[in-house]
Amino acid sequence: MPEVALPAKCFISHAYADAAARDALIERLPSGVTPFVFPSITVKPEEFVSDPLIDAVINCDGLIYLRGGASDRSFWVALERDYALRAGKKVFAFDMATGELTRDTGSPLVIE
């Protein structure tokens, strides 16, 4: 993995269908980086998962999201990325096809 200054604790944002790519990313992280993977849960429609999820993003130093596969179509990946950017966290994208890790300097989603 190229030299990228990653924060010490990174939330790993991904679609559960991309678990193999998530695991490949985690294996390639430098030894000083601790990944945080939100546990897989199943909730009823009337239950809220967003509060603990957002708290987990906020409690990490940065966020790495998977680019490609099901993660590109995931509402949750988009939400996690957006909250991390709004909170001023360092955000990175891991391209599943190339293995490239790049800093995401984009803006949060625009809500009209």
Summarize the structure.
The protein is of the alpha/beta class. It is 28% helix and 21% strand.
Describe the structure.
The protein has 112 residues and is α/β, with parallel strands linked by helices. It has a single domain, classed as Rossmann fold. The chain is 28% helix and 21% strand. The longest helix has 12 residues. The model has no long low-confidence stretch (mean pLDDT 89).
Key descriptive features of the protein:
single chain, 112 residues, alpha/beta, Rossmann fold
Note poorly predicted spans: none
Mean pLDDT: 89
Strand arrangement, major sheet: 2-1-3-4-5
Oligomer: single chain
- Rounded radius of gyration (Å): 13 Å
Please state the overall shape, judged from the principal axes of the Cα atoms.
globular
Q: What is the class in the CATH system? A: Alpha Beta
CATH architectural type: 3-Layer(aba) Sandwich
- Structurally, the number of domains stands at 1
Strand content: 15-25%
Query: Could you say which structural class the secondary elements and strand pairing correspond to?
Result: alpha/beta
Helix content: 25-40%
CATH topology: Rossmann fold
What's the number of helices?
A: 3
Show the helix and strand layout.
Blueprint: E1 9-13, H1 19-28, E2 34-36, H2 50-58, E3 62-67, H3 75-86, E4 90-95, E5 101-103
